[in-house]
Amino acid sequence: SGFPRPAATSILKRQKQLRRKNVRFDQVTVYYFARRQGFTSVPSQGGSSLGMAQRHNSVRRYTLCEFAQEQEVNHREILREHLKEEKLHAKKMKLTKNGTVESEEADGLTLEDVSDDDIDVENVEVDDYFFLQPLPTKRRRALLRASGVHRIDAEEKQELRAIRLSREECGCDCRLYCDPEACACSQAGIKCQ
Fold first, then answer.
1. Which family does it belong to (predicted)?
2. How crowded is residue 114: how many other Cβ atoms within 10 Å of its Cβ?
3. Which position among 88, 141, 177, 192 has the lowest Cβ density within 10 Å, counted as fewest Cβ atoms?
């Protein structure tokens, strides 16, 4: 025939060509958002929840190495605060004999009373220790105030309390066998808990 035949291509050459087209990641883009009152989560303790603004207020790009270093610094700072809180709690427990006696000195202690010399962050492996911690009510309120939230909606506090209480009442009162007429689960159309 008069048509030229395509050159035969090797399967091995095709595999080598595909292997060269690896996806490479060389930077991390971080979007920063202002902190707002949440209305989207239920903290285990009372008070309002934390959230973020609808749109980011800044963007920063890092190389992978820079990002790892930045994370290390951030995690060490969070760890430092956590260790200070633990030390403060231990001091208060010592002064109150594990909470059994009143102590004005213990009531007056704050994080400022815990010296950086009292904690040893450098000898703690951050990757082994770092994890997200639930924040107490006062700390969440302070974070919101520091972020410029002047009016914290008190209704959310009541709604969150109602949700936490409703989660405590789960299942039914059936014992050994299920009575569908008295079983709250059965009446709700779900399997007896």
1. Belongs to the AXUD1 family.
2. 19
3. 177
Tell me which DSSP letter residue 5 carries.
Answer: P
Whole-angstrom Cα distance, residue 91 to residue 119? 13
Neighbours of 147 (CB within 10 A): 14
Token pair of 54, please? 């609808």
Q: How far apart are CA 24 and CA 31, in angstroms?
A: 21
Q: What SS3 state is found at 52? A: strand
Whole-structure pTM value: 0.58
For 108-170, give the DSSP string: H--GGGS-GGG---TTS-HHHH----PPPHHHHHHHHHHTT-----HHHHHHHHHHHHHHHS-
d(CA 72, CA 45): 29
| pLDDT tens digits, one per residue of 86-134 | 888 888 888 888 878 888 888 888 888 888 777 777 777 766 666 667 7
Contacts of 31 (CB under 8 A, 6+ apart): 56, 58, 59
